[in-house]
Amino acid sequence: xxxxxxxxxxxILAAAAIVLQAFAMFGIYMEIRRLHSDVTGIRSEVMQRxxxxxxxxxDIVTDTREPLRTVMSNLVDVSRTLREGTNNVDAVVDExxxxxxxxxxxxxxxxxxxxxxxxxxxTTVQRNIIGPVAEVSAIVKGVQAGMNFFLSRRRTGHxxxxxxxxxxxx
Length: 170
Prior knowledge:
Layout: H1 2-159, H2 164-169
């Protein structure tokens, strides 16, 4: 009997658990239905509020599409113009640099020519002016030395009258 009582209690407990499980499933089903109706209500409410917003955004996008195309086209034109302008500026700068290089070369050649002419002039002055002046100066010094010699002899002639003893003391 103990087995039968235990088996009966087990069956009663299993039946009660199944009944409780059925009630829980029914409760879950009812909650899911209520949740579905709430979600459907919220969805319709959201759709009602989003439809005007969606239409406004669509209208804005539609209205701005053509001006945006125009702006993009203008930006492309401006970009192309800037690129061409930059190329022109580069060409002008390159040409200016070439001209500056040529002018620097010309200035260098001019300075080299002037220095060469100064050197030639200095050489010519030394050869044609300073050389003859040195020769004239040498002649003048020679004449002066000769004159000094002759003039000093005349003075020495008067001095010879002084006795030699006196000359020694002087």
